[in-house]
Amino acid sequence: MEFNSLLLLSPLLFCITSILLYIANRSINKQKRLPPGPKGLPIIGNLLKIGNRPHESLTGLAKIYGPLMTVRIGCVTTVVASSTDMAREILQKNDQAFLGRSIPDAVTAETDYERSIVWLSGGTKWRKLRKLCNSQVFTTQRLDALQRLRHQMMEDMVHRVSQAGEAGEALYIGNSVFGTTLSSFSNMMFSGDAFDPNSEEAKELKELFRRIMELAAKPNLADFFPILKPFDPQGIRRDIKCCFGRFQTLIDSKIDGRMKRRASGSQRSGDFLDAL
What we know:
With about 280 residues, the chain is mainly alpha-helical. It contains twelve helices and two strands; from the N terminus they run H-H-H-E-E-H-H-H-H-H-H-H-H-H. It has a two-stranded antiparallel ribbon with strand order 1-2. The chain starts with a helix and ends with a helix. The relative contact order is 0.08. Mean pLDDT is about 85; it is low at about 1-10.
């Protein structure tokens, strides 16, 4: 009986908690010097104004409130920069002040994000990874070394599209582009096409990529209302955790193979995996 009563009271307790958080958040924001922005509704903020096409709605709001404005996405206060000058101020002139970033709840399904150059907020590890990428991935020498390979891959993709057109067959361009991208990635990382585009392994990797991007980009209530994070109300963290696990298994198999060859005294490949 007590358990049933608790279930009935849960929605009421959630509403009360959300309202109290909204009031506290609004009081804190009043003490901050925030840019202007649209007034929001209690609890949900400006979610209705942003809608399901945020790039269009934010562009429209920027015309009213300026290139730097404040919007509330649920319980999260967000400052939006929507001009070249504002982006330059944030990303170039004051980049050190903006190193911190909010991490989507879906990304935290695994602890790897704590070691990723994408999510690290500065520090020794971030600088070391950035230096490694600058010296091993983005150098003119490295890009030039893979130029012939990139051209060949693009020619192969265009040839496949042409063949399908001549045969009157339907072709999903996304699959063809993914195969080409995967081959390019494999050659950069592993000095070879580690994943045969026609293999079951490559097909699984493609589906994992697609699913991870889909889940990571899906609007998540836990991001808008942090109080819900422990409950994972949409099951996004649970689902993406399974994808992360399988993805890591596929990549680990390539790393383990390299470690065994290195242990046997084989020559270094000189690719990004060797640098790592």
